[in-house]
Amino acid sequence: MKLIDKVALITGGNSGIGKATAILFAREGAKICLTGRNETRCKKVIEEIKEGGGQAIYVIADVRSSAECQKTVETTMKAFGQLDILFNNAGVYFPNNAIDCSEEEWNLTIDINLKGTFLMSKFALPHMVAQKSGVIINNGSGWGIVGGNEGVSYCASKGGVVIMTKAMAIDHATQGIRVNCLCPGDVKTPMLDEDARMRGMTWEEYHKQDVDQRPMGRMGTPEEIAKAALFLASDDSSFMTGANLVIDGGGTAD
């Protein structure tokens, strides 16, 4: 197991990529604290981890709130006494261009995707600095590198995450902390179901349009992204920091 005696805090850990990562990290020996805003889903993930013999807790928290981010980190420290891995995974997406994107949608996207990543890191980093080790994984996107249609606020937020990752990596490298960014392409998660609905498309129409444009001809799975997160969280990537790990079926190569 690759994460024995490690403690991982995962935001947006109650569905999709966050859920798959929490379950995989627990299977690899990590103790887990996950956050989310849906308590029913959080409890289900915790139950699944415990049924597999793992240790896990959850905190209902909104990453837009400084106080709630601080509370989440403090709860993790109180429960497990350390914090080794932070996976900033919580995110939202609204399909709109700059004309149609409302100020409310813009603020919500930036606050959750970008500000939330900053706030969780802000409160996790002092503990990592004190123990002279730690890993932060930020969930970016292929659209944070190349941009995409009808996603102006999402692309702006994820582009910010990509560059913020590099800045944090430089700032904290000498303190024993590695900071890297995952950049997934489209992955079969509830977020894509909602995207299809907001675009007025059936799932079949949405899926066909997506896979027709992707060199590998399919979407990714949460489990595939979780395996990439495990690579960044473990010593397998011990000489990596400030990097963007793209897992998108060739989307950004096309």
Search tags:
254 residues; alpha/beta; Rossmann fold; 2 domains; seven-stranded parallel β-sheet; 48% helix; globular
Task: Describe the protein.
This protein has 254 residues and is an alpha/beta fold. It folds into two domains: 7-185 and 221-243, NAD(P)-binding Rossmann-like Domain (Rossmann fold), CATH 3.40.50; 188-219, no CATH class. Helices cover 48% and strands 15% of the residues. The protein has helices at 16-27, 39-51, 66-80, 103-131, 152-172, 190-198, 203-212, 222-233, and strands spanning 7-10, 31-36, 56-60, 85-88, 134-139, 177-184, 244-247. The chain has a seven-stranded parallel beta sheet, sandwiched between helices. The longest helix has 29 residues, at 103-131. It is globular and about 45 Å long. The N and C termini lie far apart (36 Å).
Describe the SSE topology:
Blueprint: E1 7-10, H1 16-27, E2 31-36, H2 39-51, E3 56-60, H3 66-80, E4 85-88, H4 103-131, E5 134-139, H5 152-172, E6 177-184, H6 190-198, H7 203-212, H8 222-233, E7 244-247
Stated plainly, the CATH topology of the largest domain is called Rossmann fold
Strand order of the largest sheet: 3-2-1-4-5-6-7
Radius of gyration: 17 Å
Write the CATH architecture name of the largest domain.
3-Layer(aba) Sandwich
Averaged pLDDT, please? Answer: 95
SSE class: alpha/beta
Shape type: globular
Count of distinct strands: 7
Total tally of structural domains: 2
* Largest sheet properties: 7 strands, parallel
- Beta-strand content bin: 5-15%
